[in-house]
Amino acid sequence: MAGGCEGEQLLMKKVCKEFGRRDLTVIILTYNEAANLPDCLQSLKGLEGDIFVVDSGSDDATLEIARSIGARIVQHPFVNYSLQRNWAQQHLPIATEWILHLDAGERLTRELVAEINAVLRDPPTGIDGFLLRRQTYFMGRWIKHGGHYPSYHLRLFRRGKGLCEDRLYDQHFLVNGKVNPLRHDFTDVVTSDLSTWIVRHTRWAELEAQEMMTHDRTKSLVRPRLLGNSIERRRWLRQGLYEAMPLFARPFLYWFYRYIFRLGFLDGKEGLVFHFLQGCWYRFFVDLQLHALRQASRRPPAVGHTHA
Q1: 189-222: b or e for each residue (b if 16 or more CB lie within 10 Å)?
Q2: Cα(33)–Cα(41) distance, integer angstroms
Q3: What pLDDT, in 10s, does the model give residues 84-107?
Q4: CA distances from 295 to 91, 208, 211, 298, 301 (A)
Q5: E-only strand ranges, 72-175
Q6: Residue 235 to residue 225: CA distance in whole angstroms
Q7: Distance between CA atoms of 12 and 73, rounded to whole angstroms?
Q8: What is the pLDDT of residues 104-150, one digit of tens each?
Q9: What is the pLDDT of residues 220-231, one digit of tens each?
Q10: Angle between helices 194-214 and 282-298 (to 10 degrees)
């Protein structure tokens, strides 16, 4: 519902009041996620919170699945992940103190559900957000090596304290306050369908190349810091080290680093496919898109011809 549907929002506020105040609101973005959503929702069992599904026009069984577990569904056109996440925070009738953001391909482990419940019942003084540790699954295998685990992501924070940084690709959440890591994992099921993976990453490569061309430092962004938290450190390594390397050579150097020095080869044949596609093929395609954009920006504008 573009711009918000007042009638539906009033109804949702009434439902929130009837259910009473709870500790947590979970926000899940969806678009044709019928294959992923059931496992995502099942993993939330036992979590002391309410669930909103923010959908951008699914035409499969996504909405029926969401309704079957009592999730509240809101529809809003999708532009990019940053705008969609921030729109959800600004327009949903959230009545809880804490917000957790998930994608439909992600699942909470039982240990993480228990940890979140415990920590939100008695939050540490002065803490406004929590880093969650991610396990990546690809073609059914946990990718433990190549620098992919542990990987921390800021997904849980106090209402009014967090927002998604304004980037076309590789967006992270920012929290105005102190954050702590949680001890247990959530899982990210990347894909079991390589065709879908390639289509998505082709689009993401275009967006990342556009982002690298602009580098608008006036936006609210994660600050790159070598001695910062894990997210800030990764951003420093990308912007301060990787982006300084020669175009087209750096994807192969990065893949060699991940697969050999960070022991990616220990992830078996699934790891070979994942580390090559994600660490070399994708990064090479980003460079190809970036090269094309740079060439286009240097090309003189076409001059029209006049006829006597």
Answers
A1: bbbeeeeebeeebeebbbbbbebbeeeeeeeebb
A2: 11
A3: 999 999 999 999 999 999 999 999
A4: 41, 16, 16, 5, 12
A5: 72-75, 98-103, 106-108, 127-138, 141-143, 151-158, 162-164, 173-175
A6: 7
A7: 9
A8: 999 999 999 999 999 999 999 999 999 999 999 999 999 999 999 99
A9: 588 888 888 888
A10: 40
What's the CA gap between 278 and 298, in Å, rounded? 30
List domains and CATH numbers for the chain. Answer: 6-191 (3.90.550.10), 195-298 (no CATH)
Tokens for 15? 């439902």
Question: Rounded to whole angstroms, how far apart are CA atoms 43 and 106?
Answer: 9
Closest by Cα among 93, 39, 37 to 66: 37
User: What pLDDT shows up at residue 59?
Assistant: 96
Residue 184 dihedral angles phi and psi, to the nearest 5°: -105, 165
pTM: predicted TM-score of the whole model, two decimal places: 0.85
Tokens representing residue 169 in the block: 């690709």
For 252-295, how does the pLDDT look when each residue is reduced to its tens digit (9 = 90+)? 999 999 999 999 999 999 999 999 999 999 999 999 999 999 99
Torsions phi, psi for 159 (to 5 deg):
-60, 135
